[in-house]
UniProtKB/TrEMBL annotation:
Signal peptide: none annotated. It comes from the Bacteria. SUPFAM superfamilies: P-loop containing nucleoside triphosphate hydrolases. This is Protein ImuA. InterPro entries: ImuA_translesion (IPR047610), P-loop_NTPase (IPR027417), UCP037290 (IPR017166).
Length: 240
């Protein structure tokens, strides 16, 4: 037999009443994830359409998983990076595997004068540099190459990112897709066979319903290099 609430006690709200009262503050797991944080367009209409909020989200980690380096990962981010340097905001690179070839970056519209690079090698040093970069609030975009990271470390980076009005990208190996991660957005990059200027993107995790089909996007083409430039050891592949 149901017990009636005593006089003066609050009456429990039904689910429909809760949804009506807190309409803008409730998100269902199977619904589209609207981003309350500012976003910056990726520059690719098909990708923006599937990203919560319609672009790369600030105040959050974005994890980009690579089966190999040099797929065009910098070109994927080039529109956002160009926007950052046009606004005279700096970009921090933490532990890139190669020295950036700035001629190619500038051909993509990225102003090299706003690039800051930290060369560190040990996992603890990479994490420390990333944490300090996020905390500093001095960078519009932070990109870190993080082959190894514990679940606790990823959680800490996400917590720090929530307080910084920056884009934070982590490049990690594709095998990390099987590891738990606090990053709200995880994307697996894959080459398109026979097309060096295209990528297939698999949205492994996002706020909202999963998107199982790959998104194919054309990449902007970097500068046409002379033969002598191409022979520079390991300078070009990851950054064009």
């Amino acid at each position: 037999m149901p017990v009636s609430p005593s006089p003066g006690s609050p009456v429990p709200l039904s689910l429909s009443q809760i949804e009506a009262r807190f309409r803008n503050r409730i998100w269902r797991g199977d619904a589209w994830g609207a981003a309350a944080d500012p976003v910056i367009s990726s520059g690719f209409q098909g990708l923006d359409k599937e990203l919560p909020g319609g672009g790369w989200s600030t105040r959050n980690l974005t994890e980009l998983l690579l089966p190999t380096e040099g797929l065009g990962e910098i070109r994927l981010l080039s529109y956002a990076l160009e926007e950052m340097t046009r606004s005279e905001r700096n970009i921090l690179l933490v532990a890139p595997p190669y020295i950036p070839y700035m001629h190619a970056w500038e051909h993509l519209g990225i102003d090299g004068r706003h690039i800051v690079m930290v060369r560190v090698y040990k996992p603890a040093e990479r994490l420390w540099a990333l944490e300090q970069g996020i905390r500093s609030a001095a960078f519009g975009t932070i990109i870190g190459w993080l082959p190894e990271a514990s679940q606790q470390a990823m959680r800490k980076l996400q917590i720090l990112s929530r307080s910084a009005a920056s884009l934070v990208f982590l490049f990690r190996p594709a095998r990390a897709r099987f590891e738990p991660s606090a990053a709200p957005l995880r994307i697996l990059l894959s080459p398109v066979r026979g097309h060096s200027h295209a990528l297939s993107l698999y949205l492994l995790k996002r706020r909202g319903a999963p998107f199982v089909l790959p998104i194919r996007i054309p990449l902007p083409q970097a500068a046409v290099f002379s033969r002598s430039a191409e022979l520079k050891p390991a300078l070009i592949p990851s950054y064009c």
